[in-house]
Amino acid sequence: MPDSIRQVRNLASAILLAALGATLAACSGGDFGRTRADMRSDDMHRWLGLEATGSLGLQASQFQLTEEERQLRDLAYPMIEPPLSRPAWKSVFGDYQALPSPWRQKVVFDRTMYGRTLIDEPHRSHASRYAQLIEDVRNDITRFEPFFASAIRVIDLDRKREASMARVSELSPREKADAVARMQENSLIIQWVQLSLEQRVSSYRWALERLVIQAPDGMAADADRLIGELAAQTANPPVQSQPAYGRAVVSKG
Q1: Per-residue pLDDT tens listing for the chain (253 residues)
Q2: Is 15 domain-assigned?
Q3: Separation CA 162–CA 176 (nearest Å)
Q4: Which of 43, 28, 72, 24 is nearest to 183 (CA)?
Q5: Is residue 183 part of a domain?
Q6: Which of 53, 215, 246 is nearest to 130 (CA)?
Q7: Is 24 part of any domain?
Q8: Which range marks the domain in which residue 206 is found?
Q9: Most buried residue, 11, 32, 101, 131, by most Cβ within 10 Å?
Q10: H or E stretch including 164?
Q11: 3-state DSSP helix/strand/coil percent for the chain, to nearest 5?
């Protein structure tokens, strides 16, 4: 009898562990806090182009996204989403939200928010705060090259698109408008990332300055070096898009 009871208990424990494992697997997030796989879709970042053009009063393109354009948007989102904007538990459970473009009049950039969040959030030590800052800057450096490689390809294809429009037979006004709108979308997304990178560099510097005066540490030198590397990349992007139709980006702090 005791052996039978023990076997039943072991079986129940195994079932419970399996169920718990399945639940945790279903809730797990991706690298860099990305939304979990079952929350994603091929065009989940299509809204970036719609938001960019819509915020400037421009017409959105009705063309479907090409694979290159889709990749551009997928690579842009992690560089646009403000660092530390989501608590860790929300990242794990796949929290995802659309963001307003920097050309909306009510959008105000606060360069102090990242640093205040970093300092105010519970950490085991100030060293862990430095480590978080270093990780965030390094992630941006890692994302920089893939995004701009994608941007170069998209801009090159858009130049070919623009050149070919003059040779397309019976090009309708709607087709021309959609082609122009898509080129504007792509250009604005690249500008959005460039603006975001400039803001991130400013935020990281503010955060490092506050950490240094609150808790000096040798890790500050590593953080400063990485911020300088990101700033140099940001100041010299491998591709330049057209300026955004004269709408200023408001900053604070």
Answers
A1: 455 555 545 555 555 445 444 444 444 444 444 444 444 567 788 888 888 888 888 989 999 999 999 999 999 999 999 887 655 434 444 455 677 888 886 768 899 999 999 998 887 788 999 999 999 999 999 999 999 999 999 999 999 999 999 999 999 999 999 999 999 999 999 999 999 999 999 999 999 999 999 999 999 999 999 999 999 999 999 987 665 554 444 444 4
A2: no
A3: 10
A4: 72
A5: yes
A6: 215
A7: no
A8: 39-252
A9: 101
A10: helix 126-165
A11: 65, 0, 30
Is 91 inside any structural domain? yes
Q: Provide DSSP, 102-133.
A: TTSTT-EEETTHHHHHHHHS--S-HHHHHHHH
**Residue 117, token pair as written in the block:** 């969040």
Number of domains in the chain: 1
Residue 122, both tokens: 């519970």
pTM of the predicted protein model: 0.76
34 Cβ contact list (under 8 Å, min separation 6): 78
